[in-house]
Amino acid sequence: MDKFVIEGGERLAGTVRVGGSKNAVLPLLAATILQKGIYTIGNVPRLRDVNTMIRLVTLLGVRAEWVDKNRLRIDTTGVDNHVAPYEVVKEMRASVLVLGSLIGGMRKATVSYPGGCAIGERPINLHLQGLAALGCEVAIREGYVDVTANALKGGRVVFDAPTVGGTENILMAAVTAKGETVIENAAREPEVIDLVRMLKRMGAKIDGEGSDTITIKGVRSLTPCDYDVIPDRIEAGTFLAACGITRGNIVIEGCVPHHLKAVTDKLREAGMDIIEDGNSLRAAMTKKRPFAIDIKTTPYPGFPTDMQAQTMALMCISKGVSAITETIFENRMMHAAELRRMGADVRVIGNTAIVTGKDMLSGAKVMATDLRASASLIIAGLAAYGTTEVSRIYHIDRGYEAIEEKLKGLGAKISRRKDEGMGS
Ligand code: EPZ
After folding, report:
1. Which residue ranges of the chain lie beneath pLDDT 50?
2. How many other CB atoms are there within 10 angstroms of residue 360's CB atom?
3. How far is it, in rounded angstroms, from Cα 296 to Cα 309?
4. How far apart are CA 115 and CA 188, in angstroms?
5. Going by DSSP bridges, is the β-strand pair 13-17/249-253 parallel, antiparallel, or unpaired?
6. Which of 40, 140, 405, 424 could form a disulfide with 226 if both were Cys (CB 3.0 to 4.6 A apart)?
7. Closest by alpha carbon to 242, among 45, 410, 46, 3?
8. CA of residue 126 relative to chain centroid, distance
């Protein structure tokens, strides 16, 4: 296993380019199962989760090959298997996104029932209720979700809470269903809109994406297409937090500023200067310490749960007391304990963390527990006095492409080392 070794104290400066969105590319890859043919997907980030999704669709009969650093050629003419096995699904919950495309493309799916993960139990009851509303027969057998959809038809799906994956699965199942489907309380995330955009390019008839009500009129067949993935708004937000904590001055290129408006609004409130400039963000922190701000994570367009841990790291050196409330996942505060090892004053009470800012954090050996917690610890290490070692960084490789190289390009002292202490 690898670790990151970080020497704190460098103020980030320079330009960094964000890659394609992890949470957009995963459903887009699943969607290629909907229609046999050849697709080219561009701006694909080189991530562990992307490799896992490629492994999964390959098991279903897809041929995927990298045609340049961030471009994939996908050939689905040979898709002939509808079983997504436990061995792959247990590695990445987003594997469940092939449920919708297998049903939309093959009218049957057998997908290992995804377990929970570090940040929460993450059930898929809303996905399954939605599929049942489209006439699917759903059974849970020996740890697998078995779905048949001979009579797939449009229907009314009402989510009692917005679900990104649930909305994406219903979209993919509904595009070739007979009749009209309406999804109420749909997720509004940019990644959902990106999936709709590709489905429409394939010939799907969809309206209302980006609002809480999406309407899909089933079509008889679809056409493969070429498509470029939107930029990763969470990667962009992560670099903003790193700039804020190091009193840096950076330009983030290749992003969509309005996709992270809730984040830039909050970081401006914390004292950062952030200017939107086309598809770039210019960010600087001239104050020694940020103002304390309160955060409450909510579905898009609210403050994203995927930026909660990174913002908590920044608040650890604020000039006041910050309340950070996580409303999406029930166990997404594990980074607090590790930040405390770096001298942070963080008290977690239920799903709220009370962060009392300190003048300085101190470097320490800390352990990543999940993807965004890893980012939080790296951000803290960039500003901490001395050396920080972040172990189990396979978590971060799931969602950030070469983050240490990008940070080095901004002047950070960070390197990837073998972690002798952690076995192979
Ligand atoms: C997506 O997960 C993202 N992952 C997550 O990003 C992100 O945090 C999350 O959306 C919220 O924005 C991908 O897109 C691959 P949900 P997803 O269904 O779809 C509950 C990251 O760090 N729920 O919107 O799994 C669920 O337990 C990852 O990049 C049900 O109760 O999230 C959670 O509390 C982490 N029943 C809430 O809804 C269901 O059937 C939101 O989950 C489905 C969800």
Report:
1. 424
2. 15
3. 12
4. 25
5. parallel
6. 40
7. 410
8. 19
pLDDT of residue 1: 85
pLDDT computed for residue 424 by the predictor: 45
Residues 53, 43: contact at Cβ < 8 Å? no
pTM over 0.85: yes
For ligand 1, atom 7, name the residue with the nearest CA.
306
Distance CA 74, CA 327 (A): 37
Which among 88, 123, 84 is positioned nearest to 100, based on CA atoms?
84
- Quick one: pLDDT at residue 77? 98
Atom 41 in ligand 1: residue holding the nearest Cα: 163
- Secondary structure class of 228 (helix, strand, coil): strand
Nearest-CA neighbor of 284 among 233, 235, 243, 237? Answer: 243
CA distance 237 to 308: 10
User: Six-digit token pair at 198?
Assistant: 């590709």
Among 125, 127, 164, 371, say which to mutate for ligand 1: greatest number of ligand atoms within 8 Å of CB.
164
Residues identified as active-site? 117
Which residues' Cβ are closer than 6 Å to ligand 1?
A: 22-23, 26, 94, 120, 122-127, 161, 163-166, 187, 191, 305-306, 328-329, 371-372, 399
Bridge partners, residue 226, by sequence: 40
Rounded distance, CA 383 to CA 377, Å?
10
Label residue 150 exposed, middle or buried (CB < 10 Å: 0-12, 13-18, 19+).
Answer: exposed
Q: Any residues with CB less than 8 A from the CB of 177 and at least 6 apart, and which? A: 104, 134, 135, 152, 153, 154, 155, 216, 218
Q: What does 411-423 look like in DSSP terms, one character per residue?
A: T-EEEEEE-GGG-
In this prediction, residue 121 carries a pLDDT of: 85
Atom of ligand 1 nearest to the CA of 191: 14
Centre of ligand 1 from the C-alpha of residue 393, in Å: 22
Say if residue 349 is exposed, middle or buried (CB neighbours under 10 Å; 0-12, 13-18, 19+): exposed
| Alpha-carbon torsion, ordered 47, 53, 54, 57, to 10 deg | -170
For residue 320, give the DSSP letter.
S
Q: Is the peptide bond before 301 cis (omega within 30 degrees of 0)?
A: yes
Tokens for 312, please give them: 């908590």
Please name the amino acid found at residue 91: E
Query: What is the 162 CA–ligand 1 centroid distance (Å)?
Result: 9
CA separation for the pair 57, 71 (Å, rounded): 16
